[in-house]
Batch of 4 targets.
Target 1
Amino acid sequence: MVEESGTLEGLADRLGDVETWGVLHLTCHGKVNPPTVLLETDTGAERRASPTELLGCVGSHPVRLVFASACDTATWDPDAKTSFTDALVRGGAHTAMGFASKVPDADATQVGAALHARLARGDALALALAEVRRERASDPDLDPRAWASCRCFTQVTPGALVGAASRRVAWKLVRRANPEAFLKARGRSIPVAPRTRFVGRRPLLQKLIRAITERGSLGAAVLGIGGAGKSSLVLRALTRVALRPVVFYKVISRPELLQALREACADLPTVSEALTDDEVKRAGGEEWSYRALVQRVLALDVLRDHPLVFVLDDAESELEDDAARGVKRLKKEPRDTITGLMDALGSVPEGRSRVVITSRYAFEIPDRRGRDLFEDLVRIDMAGMTRGDAEKLLQQADRYDVRGVPRKGASRALAEDLRARCLRAGAENPRFLALLHTALTESPKRGAAVLAEVERYLKEGHRPGDPEVVRHLEGLVIDELLKLVGDAGRVALRALTVFSIGLPISLATQTVDESPELIERLVDLSLLERDTEGMVRVPLLVRPALGVEEPDTRKYILTRFFDALPDDWREDAEGGWNGPLDRALCLFALAPRRGAGLACRTSVAHGGERAAPERGGRGCAEASR
């Protein structure tokens, strides 16, 4: 099992799901004075954890082996007269391991992987560690510190992993909001990924938690293409904060909001007294009464101790096209409901209640003075998953069904060739990837046909015939959005399909010879996605609707692109490269298609190492020639 929160609370919560376990492997950073490991808070801030706190987090579970894969976790602190791993064993852990020096992450991972592989085969711990050291000592690419400084501390004879710890300290969890109010909003069921089928997204999750717990904003807007995991992200955040959810799903109106507020605060008498039947009825029909009532309720002292988070999920259902401006806008009733709510939230001094909006598209929230209240929300753009997160998601899908229940009987894992094809076709979109995995595991024959249809669609634009795939693609309303942005938007998008990597908005605008406003509008409509570094790219599922550029046009686009490259995208004076490897490989692949006259280096420097051009496949070989 994997716990990605980086927090002690998250680890304690995850360990509460299992009755017995054998090994706890921590990947983080270590400090010597005092002996601690560096974890995180829910919002991403540094959180130092002592051995006592870690053992307390573990609770009543038997601690057979803790592997603290971090620098200096086995380094002796003369002031404390112990090390982190030594203190774990003295505190009750059966056995603990760590490193008595600084060690590179990748090398520490190799040592840990080799050790765990031997333990999984049943090797005794002492023998397993000795064999790992012997094997790794002959690896010229491995930092010697990784195997030479690996230390083992144990309170018994170091044989096979047996026995349990003797002492525990109870770990108290912070009170969390009940997610049921989110999952079953106003009689509707919100489709979200269960915790066992949710991976990655940690920077976005931390950003969302900061937006709804810290001062300085009224809340957040979570934006992204259909199936990106917006609702799942919000649910994960709600389970880690002490806010009371008031949830709407697709329908946003004054009566809906007031009724949801009554239900969420049914156990708070002062709120119930303010929301009488007469008051709610009057406010449901009169905008000014609604604004006054919401403001009066949010100012109640009880809501300072029990703050709310209003979740407006799938708000795109309340949007309509503004064809003249090429944007999406709120209908009147939802607009009045949201502006009244946000005005009330902003008018309460020191108020802790917040609002979270999920939508496929960005939109304006104009108040009575013409100001856009959308700017008061922290914007969170849900870009496609990374390849690593997609692989982890497939692994979780092998173990758990769509409800999060462990699979029984034979393994549902895919064959390696099918897994690779599934990742290529659906890696960017969690819902689409889950759809392909389900089809392949439930009916291999049908799944293979579905996968082939999807691959044809992504490569040649042929619409699939499978009903589930068609429903997913039609739900993205890509053709309607392309009509909304007109010829200029379509031309710009087709030009950007030349690039498999994200581009800064400034580079994208110069490459397609369009204004930044048009690029931002395409991002607002989810026809372009923006990642956590601000790079924009055309989503995989949007590309087939755009067609392919003609060779001469492609050459012109690449000429503009290379002429506009920023300095930090170019090689240094010695021909080295310090940027991301995937960016270097993409540049190598594109360079020869630009035309004659461009000098290409045959190797790149990344992370202190040289990467030979053949690692990039055909593109690098062409660039080398």
Note: The mean pLDDT is 83.
Target 2
Amino acid sequence: ITIIPNQRITIRHATFYLGKMPIFYFPYYTYTLNERANQFFVTPGYRSRFGPYLLGTYRWFLSEQVDGELHTDYRWERGVGVGPDINLHLGRWGEATIGYYYLNDREPGTNSGGFNNPNDRQRVQFNYDATPWTNLNLKSQVRYQSDERLLTDYFEGEYRRNPQAATFAEANKLWDNFSLDLFAQPRVNDFFETVEALPEVKLTGFRQEIGASPFYYESESSAGYYRRRFAETNSVPSGLDFEAARADTYHQIVMPQTFFGWLNFTPRLGGRWSYYTRASGPGATTAEQYRSVLNTGAELNFKASRLWTDAESKVLDVHGLRHIVQPSLNYVYVPRPSVAPVDLPQFSHESPSLRLLPIEYPDYNSIDAVDSQNVLRFGVANKLQTKRDGQLEDLLRWDVYTDWRLRPRTNQTTFADLWSDLIFRPRNWISFESQTRFDLDTGDCRMAFHNVTLTPSDTWSWSLGHWYLQDDFSGDPLQLGEGNNLFTSSIFYRLNENWAFRASHYYEADLGRLQEQYYTAYRDFRSWVGALTFRVRDNGDGRGDYTLAFTFSLKALPRYGVGHDTLRPYQLIGN
């Protein structure tokens, strides 16, 4: 090993061992220590669906304004994949990234419809973000891919973060009381469903005082041309696409009041007016419509607290306690709109959600699905605080809330599900999170997420989780479909200064299947760190998916951020 301080490290005839067993051999490797110097990264490995592979990235710096990466990947059974990423640093005109990747795939497999993917698989991506002047932001993103499974097969990290990234361009101008937004969203991948905005302009009026009166005003107005395009199977249109223009304006007056010095009362009165052109396209069913909607309601809440300065507990690390409770009641009344949602083209429609949807406007933004409402939302927020090491910390936070629908719609029950969100930290090194959702009519638990994390020292840590989602095949447009009953575990142990290990497991109890396993051995080589990762996946198709990969990084110029290998373990195998 030759080390030239602040310049480079050169390694010749290096062998990586796991115990006494040689795993990889590097005849020559050089790494530049200058932060903006050209560098080469490689990830060698084996995956049962790829065979042996070598993922190479050459990071180059042309100037302060231009740099990028060149990817050259070889997968024994699938072929060679290449493509550049170019980053532009444009000063006041922002940051831009242009990327392209191409692979002539020998075994492209099939898509979700059972049709063959193309052999020529490629993608194009573009990102742009700039603030050329104060309060003016320009943003754009393009995501094109040749087939729906490209990200799943080769860019797993991106797929897990966002499986259907949108293509859009947006310009936003901000003032003290108003915001103007110009937004365009075309569809570039015909195998994904998209609501195109061609374009949309929206003016938002933030809550602002009306003169010296006790009244406040807020608004949201938009106009655009929209096209709802359903996913195509093997480039065959569904025949359900439709399009129309829409203009919508919403205005609201609120009057925040405080009584007795502690009771907050905020009545509100608002109205919405919308215009829709006659829809066109093979799936069009709606005529020209003028819709008006009135809404009113009020929110009531207060905050109370109690202090116990002498409260002490060594077990819970409590040194004094303060309990803060905040009950709230929010009433919303919306009479029947002049035009029912079924007679309007559904562009901004309600989508399935794991969280309780907002009930008041403009937070509820499914414009085309606006319908009558007569509902009370009850909520209680609790907070327990204590002092630890002289700092104020939350020992417990617990929010409980539900809706009482005084006049439920056809697809609604009288009471919404009861929701509970809890975070409990009995010690600095223990945290427990819980989110639950109970059906008050049947008593069923519809959703549960629990996670406990133990980090008593830098020697070891353990995270245990459970994610449960009840099957929902109710036929409702907001049904969630097939559920989950997933148990997770991730344990880290540092054996000594040189060696550490991590094991992660994901077990689907309903299927009786250990879906995914990660095993990683970390080796500290003083100036750099290496990681050998073995992953096993059971996709339920009868074929095991095995991956073995080796990654390494200099401590002075780390390849990944702190904690990335915990949150995104697939990065350790090149994804």
Note: The radius of gyration is 28 Å.
Target 3
Amino acid sequence: MSLSMSRLSLAFLLGLVATVAACGRGGSPDAGRSAPAQRPSILLVTLDTTRADAIGPEAKGVETPAFNALATRGRRFRQAYAPAPETLPSHASMFTGLYPAGHGVHENARTVPARHPHAAEQLQRGGYRTAAFVSAFVLARRFGLARGFETYDDELAGAVERSARDTTERALAYLEAVGRDRPLLLWVHYFDPHAPYAPPEPFRTRYATQPYLGEVAAMDEQLGRLVAAFERRAPGPVAIVVASDHGEGLGDHGELQHGHLLYQPTMHVPLVVVGPGIEPGVSDAPVSLRRIHHTLVDWAGLDPSGEATRHSLRAGAPEVVLGEAMKPFLSYGWQPQIMAVEGTKKAIYAGRYEVYDVAADPGERRNLEPVSGVPASLRRATDGYPVPTPGATPAADTLTDEARRQLASLGYVSATAQPVVRRDAPRPVDMVKLFEVIDRASTLFVQQRYAEVIPLLERILRDDPFNLDATLRLATAQSMLGRDAQAVASFRKAAELAPQSQDVRLYFALHQERGRDWAQAVPTLERIVADTPERLPAVEALARVRERQGRPAEAVALWQQVHTLREPTPADLVKLGTLAMEVGDTAVALSAFERAREQQGAAFRHDLELGVLYVATRQLEQARAALDRVPAGHPGYPMALFKRAQVSVLLKEPDAPARIARARQQADATTRGLIATERLFR
């Protein structure tokens, strides 16, 4: 299978997009011919990291009465599959109806494109009230799933995740307060079974030897509370969908967690649907989670074309179910992985085929491909599935260091560079011994624990010497520790692996910019910023260089560019304000200091600068308030008194003479001459 977009089946990709585009044309609540007479309120619950065999009536070693009760009332799909074994791509498919090849999100820490119709947007336009409560940073609004939700609660109180109980409490409070005048779409996401597994009591004690199952059981308890409250409070008839976004390896096939492989533990997920038009029972037909989108649109009566109705979970139309695991390919250059399931047969392509009968061999131990070959329908499906081109999806360069640390604490770290793509690349399943090492090294690198990460990166490169990401991280770690000769040698190795790589040029330039030879980095940084102005590290480095060169006006423009790529911190804003004042750009300086004060509140320490800028722009009331906040111990207090006296005169305050006198009494070398020549004081 070729690794370029040129070999994709155009008809296949257009089919992915056309399905949801047809759904997106609906806008009227009465448009759907097959919709129930009264549109239901819909509860969508997504269970992060929950294996199909860890919940439900057939699960062993765990009790999940809430899920089981829904399974009894509705339809349980025994062969439901995630589109990808990662949280953001899988949820993007649920809300757009597209496989990752269609919506373009193959990994976490990307952004779901706004060009694809989102189920929440469609339902909101169709008259639904919409609300979402998510439990982890990986689904924060910045990643693009908040579109169409009037309420999108991703407030984690400074943490990276919150418990199912905390999320449920917020959702229940919303249900108690929300109006009942129109139908409701409520999405609640639970993150609990994600590693590390630490269930609350009594589940911690009850599942002491199986904490993962303890997390699932604790989450199921909250699911029961949520469903009961929704059915009590939601207006009209009720429809419910409960699904996992992906599973968890737990050591099967050598994968402890998820994201690297396409075997059943991470791709086979629980799915139960209750609501109008759903016949209770069990379905053994393979279905994709992407069909949740069609089901929501169908229930809402927003399907004039009938396309969503044909693909909804109400219809049960047979299909070849597809899936992918592209993280090892996009991060390390290993073989891309594609999955296709039809009936009980499952094919995985990753450089070569594997075929399993998942009914007779649920553990996928007996590869049937050497004996019976690949079923023609599965071969066509995998051959037609588009493989992404590395770099076609924008890199996560707009993430702040703090955002990267938050994702790393959840086990999600994106690659540093576009990989070296090669036909003889290893198959991910043959590299399972490196999974844990890579995950640990990636986390340590993001945490800037460079001395600890170097031995792990060296171990990775012994087994995978063409791994560009590991090579560049090793070079960067050596650079940050001041090991210049070793860093240069590693950067040279990276350049040999990828002679045309802009990533290699960028990270070597960043190495130079940090040292005595910083001027050598300037031409490279200038070229990269000109060619790819969204490359945040390059723009930041060039801004620092312009400051060193004594070119503050250019530095101001570059820092403004940085702030369009990521949310600036208060320190960033103060720095921009200070530079802008230096070059006389009052408007930029004032805006920067105002935003910094808005973010910092009482902790803001630059009221003097703010007061001076307000005086310059004749915003005298604001200037008075800002200057009055400058404490007496501030090193610029004499200037604050001088400017405050000016404001007092201009506002015709009765105590203006006293303020002028006080400014004279406490003048310093700078303000003494200003006071002597100030016309307002005569």
Note: The longest strand covers residues 41-47.
Target 4
Amino acid sequence: MFRSSRARASLIRSLLLGTATTAFAVTASSVLLVGCKDESQPDYWVEKLNEDSWRARAVTRLGQFYEDASSKAKGDNSTPEVQALLNKIVEPLTKTYVEKYDKMDGKTRVALIKLLASVRDKRTEPALKKAFEEFAKKPATSKDDADIKWAVRASADLKLDSLADPLVQAFLKLRASTMLGGITYKDFNDAMVQIKSKSWTGPLISALEAPIERPSGDKDKDKIDPYKDQLFWQTTAAQVLGELAAPEAVEPMVKIMLDPAKADCQATAVLAMVKIGKPAADAAIKLLKGEDEKMIAFHYRRLKELKQIKEDDEKKMKEKPSDAPHVQTAAIMVGTIGRGEGVGPMLDALKKAEKDVTRALIARELVKLPKTPESLAGFKEAFEKISIEANVPPGMNALQMLAEAAGQFYNSDLVDWLLERAEKTKGSGDDLKALQGAIVVTAIKLAKVDQLEKVKAAVDKYGTKLEKDLYAQAEKLVKQCTGQAECYMGEMEKSSNQEQATQFVAIKSGYMAAILGGEAQRDELVKRIESFENAAVRFVAAQTIDHLSPKGSKEAAAKLRKVVDKNAESGDKDKMAGDAPVKQVMYRIEARAN
């Protein structure tokens, strides 16, 4: 029975063998071939990129390979292991993005460009370019179509010349008011500031020339999105043109400063003028002197278009050009740019001014320029002419403002004059008390050891508990450090003096370092700038560096830039906010050195 069963089995095998041998051989061969293409290897998934049904999974899997390799290398893409992987996957992935762009669903496409952007490899250039070009042709608005977000981040690091034009074209189509713009505009701003291609000068200047309509209330809801878009384009354009120090951009910047509708762009524009330096200073001085008829006419036209003045107002202003609104704007530009050649024209404008508001604004800006005996005398003369009732926009008492600004002369000889003004200025009520309080605080900041007795008498006479507490801190400090600049800088740096309760010790120390110091102390403050954690102390340190750099310093500016860049890379918002005055001083002393 068993033998019979075995015989039948043998017969069946012999019958099947002839017909099945070929099929079996083919199947076995196929199994062996498939076995060579191991799913655990990137080569397998690279091939799958060509198959529509497998592409999404292939992108995900290749991304996992890269993440694993990068993680093992602790983020160092230069290691042999990571490079070996990139050599296998970068070009196929790039080709897939370029050639299959229209065939991929949005999720897969964005995942692919995100992966390509993350490797920071020059070979991804065609894909990055494709992302910008496609967006420029058909601007997306959904945050799900974030191709350009990842492309622009990679572009910032790679800095490839071939991407400059596609990137700026995408920038000019990106609406900050959209969902996509909301998650992408900052990446574009950061990248463009880093890349700052000279080829962008023309397109960015054109962007500055577009009109802006500021929404004024609920009835202007339809203007809100266009306003956001223009604000993004124009502030970014102004910032980049400043980084390029493009003299061609000076006239558009002046127009921004003279256009009330562009008020929210003006801080960026004037800072750009600081970076541009002398050409910007020359234009501002020309306007201050009333010699730029084109810009003056533009200013009046915009004021009338915005219904801020009437024809009769313009006629009256032209009859007294020394007090015309463009003079105040020009003074702000000259003061912020901060170059020595502005001192003479500012003093001339100050002498010609007839209105207190004009005098006050010019005097305030004069303090920002490199100090001279003439500028000090002009400031004092203007101060003594201004009424205690005078206010400057947006409603600050003019004399109180100037009493605070006087400290930026960093001149202890001002103490006697300040105390005299506290005594002799005519007035009464809260305005006089506020002025006397401001004068006392400035006198405390400037006083040397031999002036403490006079200042104490003024504090006792005019001061509140606040001024008396500040004097007590200053008195102890000055008696300890006397005339030693290094001692004051040490106190300025102490962590205990970064606290709000004791910050005035560090602030007073900064003023004394400015009064007693020179370039050596300036360089020492630059070294220590990171140790000033308190925002008010950091501001005083920056102002002191500026004061001690009347001729500028590229070396000091370069060191400050390293600190600013480091804090920007850290993402620490408090440090970045504290660097705002440091950045302005950095630009001023860098441009001043040219």
Note: Residues 26 and 32 are 10 Å apart (CA to CA).
